Amino acid sequence: MFQVRIHGRGGQGVVSAAEMLSVAAFDEGRFAQAFPSFGSERMGAPVMAFCRIDTREIRSREPVMQPDALIIQDPTLLHQVDLFSGLAAGGFILINSRRSAEELGIAELAHGIGHDHLCTVPASDLALKHTGRSMPNAALLGGFAAITGQLHLDSVTKAIREKFPGKVGEANVAAAEAAYEHVMKERQSPAPHA
Amino acid sequence: MLKQTEGSHAIAEAVALCRPEVICAYPITPQTHIVEGLGEMVKDGSLTGCEFINVESEFAALSVAIGSSAAGARSYTATASQGILFMAEAVYNAAGLGLPIVMTIGNRAIGAPINIWNDHSDSMSMRDAGWIQLYAENNQEAADLHIQAFRLAEELSCPVMVCVDGFILTHAYERVDIPTQAQVDEYLPPFEPVQQLDCDDPVSIGAMVGPEAFFEVRYLQHYKQQRALELIPHFAEEFKNLFGRESGGLVRPYQCDDAETIVVALGSVNGTIKDVVDEMRAAGHRIGVLTLCSFRPFPLTAVRTALIKAKRVVVLEKSLAVGIGGVVSDGVRKALSGVVLRGYTVIAGLGGRAITGKSLRALFEKAERDELEMLSFLDLNWDVVERELERGRQQRRSGPTAENILRDLGPAGARIG
Amino acid sequence: MTLQSVKFYQTGTFTVGNRLLEAADRTVQANMRRTNSLNSGHRACQGCGEALGARYAIDAAMQATNNRIMAVNATGCLEVFSTPYPETSWQIPWIHSLFGNAAAVASGVAAGLRVKGRKDVRVVAQGGDGGTTDIGFGCLSGMFERNDDVLYICYDNEAYMNTGVQRSSATPPAARTATTMAVGAHPGNVFGTGKNLPLIAMAHNIPYAATASVANLHDLEAKVTRAMGMHGARYVHIHVPCPLGWGSQPADTMLVARMAVESGLFPLIEAEHGEVTGRYQLRRQVPVEDYLKLQKRFAHLFGAKGEPATVVAIQAMADANIRRFKLAEPVSA
User: Fold this and answer.
1) CATH class given for the domain over A2-188
2) Residues C161, C9: Cα–Cα separation, whole Å
């Protein structure tokens, strides 16, 4: 089983991201479960969503306490919430930010995990560029496919198109593909970036 | 057809396949996506022969369903938490009149304190009203139970509640096999009412019944539920034959045959429990879990049969009968009348408190050592409780409890799970 | 042969049951083939205005719909006295659910009929003032707002009579009830702001809203008939004296009802989509005292320890109604 935990704030599409991940996994013939953890509908409040992927039926309903991958949609949560709680050994971290891990103040963690397990990607910027809105969730899914290798990019883009039909879907797919490329490059490069 | 979809949407699709004729609902978290889905289907024409009515309260919702059901239309509504209380009078009324309404309960805690997360206090509050109560373990079962519910309701002329854990199931995306219209039509014939408002054959429904007859009328409701004990497994068997999967029924034992310890639970937590049971079995523990699908009627015989050979039973429930302890436990104890074994009640998950595999493992191992109290509270924060009690001891006007505790704990958004 | 003129005093009047009128001018009640939807044998009190009002209204509705009506009843006097188990005096399909949900249940019955394509069958909801203006208010407003195809009839006897004459929001000022006793500095019910359900119905812009009285059968039947000729949410509010609760003589029910109308305290009006379209011009305004004195629930206003000021205030209310609804002006032809 592969467990993902997504952190963000209300209004950033955290819940949709988890749902799309689960649809992508389903399209690949796997079992997947996605569910949110939130309070009343409110923009800006910290929100979590979970996604489990497995080759067999998923029965557990507990929150993801030991994620294999973390997607951080809003870096302002970094020093407010214990985002990395429970991260499994060999786990992945993908952060939506223009900055590097060092610039975000998590250099030590990054060093410990390794640059192919912790990446930052300017997902909001990519989203703004391709879709006109800075909603980073679809882009981050492209980054997820790249950093974890858990899903084919094609499955992710198919799920995005199912969720956002027409031109909006295409634009989000473009952002996801760009993020995928970005993360693939970052995994290979050992140097920090500006 | 296999789909990756939200639980609410799977339920909406299943209900739509049952050819409902009147759907009326008032929005309340976490049921909103179900009725929104159905409303959209009616509005865009994909669900025909159905009236969708936006009502002004839950009381009105069930009342409209009472009227349409009495007029001979297959009727459906959904609610949760505060909503089921607001319609409480109508809940008893529908059962008393014997109207085969099907209602989804998106299980949610009842306030005060106001809380939108999952537990079973809402459906439990109406457990004695005369409705059949079925609990879904996962979203496949949630969808399937609605189809079985209409069949059961109309066969018995008794309303049925399908209980689905709020957020945990209603808002979870998972794989569900949505049946075809042809399959559902074969399973569920058109509604043939036992009583109907009909100008060609007028009847008066709902007269006042005095001491000379009320007892008999009420007994007949109880009798219907006894019949349901036979019909529920029968319809589940028919369902299996037609749709090709097991869903519903009275109880579902898992690894219970040679179990020394058996856990009993309702709803989605059974999934997490099964994972822990597998883990513990692999480590040599003889443990199993009994899923209770039908809570009303309470399957006394089936429960007894499943548990009688165990050394100990742990009832894990999301409902607290304030002042006494467990709700489900009472039924289990009744089922085990005269049987000597150790019985433990564990209250868990109230107000959406997460039930983790880790906690369950520790709990079950403690049970195996018989170190559990008869009544315990899983992952209750005793420090917080003690601090609040101390506040109360320090001054008379210690303030509202909930607010004190929240202030004590700090922002919720900073915590995981 | 000499011609001698003979006066037929009843010809040309609108007396109930008058068969000397042209057939078209006769009331439904005057028709031997009336459905008698609320049949005899019910357990209403002697002189019950509600029993009368219900029979008048439902028979008229039956005639207007070719005898295809279903009735939904709220808990109350009518429901209790008409269905003493194991008997029922209803000749039509009838359902009683709860106290506060008659309007919602009726909406449901209408929806059920609609979805089954039964355009020929119409739905009537019935409730007392308690079930309508108080506990059933929410459901009624919802029915109005959705414009559900139901005629809601409120039988207003101005208190919770079935449970022992307790005050409702329809109880008039100064009236004695079990919960507004005629004791203390302000005996009887308070002079509140009132809750005028007919006006509230009008504020919902429903197709038809009207007030009626058992004292004016022609008017009542005409209004119910007109209402049944329309679709959508319709409301008729019928004033029905309760001899027991009001402390009036059972034989005086019609007189008391007529006094309420002719004093201006209970205006007879009609409205469509929120605009007044008809009113009954008072034949001869009577002072409110003539009405109040017939009822023991107002007895504390008179006599040695009476309250003339209160009577004046009540008169002012009546006068205000007359002005507001132009009840003294001739109705244009």
Assistant:
1) alpha beta
2) 38
- Who among B22, B205, B208 is closest to C108 (CB)? B22
Q: Which domains does chain B have, with CATH numbers?
A: 2-243 (3.40.50.970), 252-377 (3.40.50.920), 382-414 (no CATH)
Q: What angle do CA B165, B166, B169 make, to 5 degrees?
A: 60
State the complex-level ipTM: 0.92
* pLDDT tens for each residue of chain C, 333 residues long: 788 877 655 555 566 667 777 788 889 998 888 899 999 999 999 999 999 999 999 999 999 999 999 999 999 999 999 998 889 999 999 999 999 999 999 999 999 999 999 999 999 999 999 999 999 999 999 999 999 999 999 999 999 999 999 999 999 999 999 999 999 989 999 998 889 999 999 999 999 999 999 999 999 999 999 999 999 999 999 999 999 999 999 999 999 999 999 999 999 999 999 999 999 999 889 999 999 999 999 999 999 999 999 999 999 999 999 999 999 998 775
**Phi, psi at B132, each rounded to 5°:** -75, 140
Euclidean distance between CA atoms C14 and C18, whole angstroms: 7
Residue of chain C whose alpha carbon sits nearest to that of B60: C104
Largest CA distance in chain C: 74
E strand map for C4-73: 69-73
Can you name the residues that pair with C152 across neighbouring β-strands? Answer: C125, C235
C-alpha distance from C199 to closest chain B C-alpha (Å): 20
- In chain B, which residue's Cα lies nearest the Cα of C138? B56
Fold of C23-324: Rossmann fold (3.40.50)
**What chains are in contact with A, requiring at least 3 Cβ pairs below 8 Å?**
B
Query: How far apart, in whole angstroms, are the C-alpha atoms of residue B255 and residue B277?
Result: 8
**Cα–Cα distance measured from residue B119 to residue B113, given in angstroms and rounded to the nearest whole number:** 13
- Count CA within 13 A, CB hemisphere, residue C248: 27
Q: How is chain C split into domains, by residue range?
A: 23-324
Per-window interface: A 64-123 vs B, CB < 8 A: 65, 80-82, 85-86
Instruction: Say how far apart CA B305 and CA C174 lie, in whole Å.
Output: 68
Tell me the β-bridge partners of B75.
B22
